[in-house]
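Weekly modeling sync, notes
Attendees: AB, CL, MP (scribe)

Item 1: holo prediction request
CL wants a bound-state model with GBH before deciding which constructs to order. AB pointed out that an apo prediction alone won't tell us much about the pocket. Agreed to run with the ligand included and paste results into these notes for async review.

Input as submitted:
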Amino acid sequence: TPKPTPTPTTPLPPGFSWGASTAAYQIEGAAAEDGKGPSIWDTFTARPGAVRDGHTGHTACDHYHRYREDVALMRGLGLDAYRFSLSWPRILPTGSGPVNQAGLDFYDRLVDELLANGIAPVPTLFHWDLPQALEDADGWLNRDTAHRFAEYAAVAADRLGDRVTRWITLNEPFVHMAYGYAFGIHAPGRALLLDALPVAHHQLLGHGLATAALRAHGAAQVMIANNCSPVRPGGRSAEDLAAVEAYDILHNRLFNDPLLLGSYPDLSGYGAPEPTWGGLVRDGDLAAIAAPLDGLGLNYYNPTWVVAPAAPTAPAGPAAPSAGILPFDLAEPGPGYARTGFGWPVVPDGLTELLLQMRQRYGDALPPVWITENGCSQPDRPVDGEIRDQDRIDYLDAHIDAVAAAVAQGVDVRGYFTWSLLDNFEWAEGYHQRFGLVHVDFETQVRTPKASYGWYRDRIAAHRGAR
Ligand code: GBH
């Protein structure tokens, strides 16, 4: 088989860290084993029509039982670090209260296996699988959830903190708010549009309180993983440019400003009438949220094109932002972009743009950056023999170069984690979109490295050889 030649262009710094990412509900399976409580994704996937073809994460990649094989695959890549998430309801079945030691035991074994293979464990505390019991009390719309999250962080750090030095609190609070609470296309399936805004504040507060709890347990490094997207106009009118501004505020600055600057952007046009959001933002909250971070994780997939909202003719649907209520409409990317299996445009320079924009916006308040997710999906299709995923190789190669371009222009980027190690449960798409370097046959659980696996292994080795 022809072996793709790695092409290290701009050198990345010597200590640059190479990783891969996954998330608990997407890979673990064992959804009801060893005392795990139900999460909102267990509930949501049981709802008819919620996920394509009724797929669920009940078994997923069966990683809960096969983690040793998966760590061996990571070792074969030569990874420095592995980003995974802890299932909150596996550890605290009802979200608070009694600790399920058997659940913690699993992460204990996983962390030991990683360390024995020379791979740094980088757990994320929350990757969208809220304990159902907390959703029954209104989930992230309820301020109490932030306090429960901090307690959970303390439990996890108490057990794993002697070996885990780098923690990530939340994964993509924007996407969880937007898809889970504003549009209803992810769990918990609420379609509140701008009334979902409290979910942003309560997640960020949870991050701040959890950061304090992790620090109290001696955590060396605390980060958060934000999904950020440079915003591009889909038209040229003043209204289109206003929509760009609105989307940038709601997607990017709503989450980055309070973390890095200690204040929210002006949301007066978007459902938060004054600085306290009608009393929701209390004294001390912003100080907690703005506690210093050791790193900012950025998940990048593609830029977002927006235009001014259309006249309010169409009724609001669950997947479509309702015209006339949101201050933007999503638009098609300009022509000429390759698309991933999902249809997302392939725009590597958007990653350079994002990194330079973060540096320009936040200056010295920007901590070192890690790319905590970046990757490309292919639609599910029958495979026979070798999986030549050249489009994934091209995608990863161009995006790693895009990181190097930003580093060359002075942005402090310390590492890159690709999404994902394994094909896995892709949320509302079920198993129909595959992001893995490793193919998973979901009938047999057989793992087969794709061509991109060999390419990434060689890319990492080339970087090490070059230093
Ligand atoms: C991440 O979310 C998640 O953290 C991860 O769990 C998930 O598996 C992975 O990405 C892949 O989906 O081009 O306008 O049609 C990513 C959130 C939202 C990013 C949709 C890309 C493209 C929308 N994504 N967005 S568009």
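Recorded for review: The first helix runs from residue 24 to 27.
Action items: CL to compare against the apo run; MP to circulate these notes.
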